[in-house]
Amino acid sequence: MITVKGVYKYVRLGAERTTALRDLTLEVPEGGITGVLGPPGSGKSTLARLVALRDTPDAGVISVDGVNTMSLDRPRMRSVRRDIAMTDVRALFAGRSAAGNIASPMERAFFDPPRIKAEVAKLLDLTGLTGAAGCQPGDLAPGERRRLALAQALAAGPRLVVADDSGEGVHADSDLVVALDRARSELGVTVLMLTSDVGMAGRVDTVALLRDGHIGESGTLWDLIQRPDSLVARALLPEIAGPRIGEGVFDIVAEAVLPGFSAIGSLMPAAAIRFDVDIQIVGGGITKVGETPVARFLLGIDGPSAADALDWISTHCSVVRDRRTFIPAPALSPEIVAAHTHNSASARAAGK
C-alpha cells in the first residue's frame, strides 16, 4: 500500500541543519501490521508524518498504491490523505467524553445520528473502552487515552492508521496492540506502528529497526530470527550468556532457536536417544513471538556423536549456531536494551 524509497528529510535545530532520515526505504503492505522499532530521536515521528502525508520528503519517493504522491495535485492529495489517519492524543477534546471524541470526525462528515451512535459503540468495543464512554480524556489512564486516540482515528474510516507512540513517554501496552489487531482483522485497516518498546515487535507481521534515521534491518520476525546479526531478534529472544559458557566442559556448545511447544518439549530428548549423547540446557529461556512459544537455548552436547546430533537438531530448528564459530551481534542502543529489559522483567513477573 505504502512504499517509502530512498527518502531523506532534513530538520533545522537553530542554525544547524541535521539529517532526520537518510536513504530510508520501507514497505507497508496492505492488510498487515508493520512495526518500526527505534530509540527516542531515531526519526520515528518524522517518518510517521511523512507516511501520513502530513509532510513531504526533501528527497526520495513516497508512493501510495504505486502512485508517487509528489506527482499529485492538491485535490488528489487531499483525497489520498483522507485514507490515512494518525493517532494523536493531542487531538482529543478535553471537554468531550470518550464517545464524543470518537463521534467528532463523523459529525464533521455529516453522518446521520443513528449511524454515528452505532459506529461509536463499535469503536468503543474494539478499543476496550465501552466502560469509559462517558469519561473525559483527562479521567483516563495514558494507555486508555492512546486507545481513545486510535478510536478517533478509526472513526474517519481510513485504510491506513499510523500509530506513533514516540511522544507518549510510556511503553505501548498489550491492549493497544490487541485493538490494532482487531482494527486490522475486523475493519480491514492497514497498520503502521512506531514504538521504542521492543516487546511490541513480537506482535506485528513485519518489523523494521530504525537507527539514526536509517532502516538497519527489516522483515518478518521469523526471517529475522534466522539471521545471526539481527538486533531485533536478539532483543526479542531470551538472553543467554556469552559464547565461552561451557567451553572445555562439553564437546560442543551451540545456540538453538526452536519454535512451538512440540519442538521445545521433544527435540532435545529425541536427539539424545538417537545419537547416544548427553544434551544439557546451559542457558536461555522461552518467550512468545505473536502467539507462538519460541525457545532460545544454549546447549551443551557431550559424546562421540555430538557433531552428528547437532547437525540433526539443525534440520528441525529455525536456527542453530555452533558457538565454536559464532560471533555475537553488536549491542543494541541503550534505549532499546532498556526497553527489552523492562519487557523481559514484566514477562517473568507475569509468569510467576
TrEMBL record:
Keywords, ordered alphabetically: Amino-acid transport, ATP-binding, Cell membrane, Membrane, Nucleotide-binding, Translocase, Transport
Residue ranges of domain ABC transporter in the record: 2-237
InterPro entries in UniProt: AAA+_ATPase, ABC_transporter-like_ATP-bd, ABC_transporter-like_CS, ABC_transpr_LolD-like, NIL_domain, P-loop_NTPase
Superkingdom field: Bacteria
Gene3D superfamilies: P-loop containing nucleotide triphosphate hydrolases
Keyword Endoplasmic reticulum set for record: no
Molecular functions (GO terms): ATP binding
Short name of one Pfam family: ABC_tran
Protein name: ATP-binding cassette domain-containing protein
Species the sequence originates in: Actinokineospora xionganensis
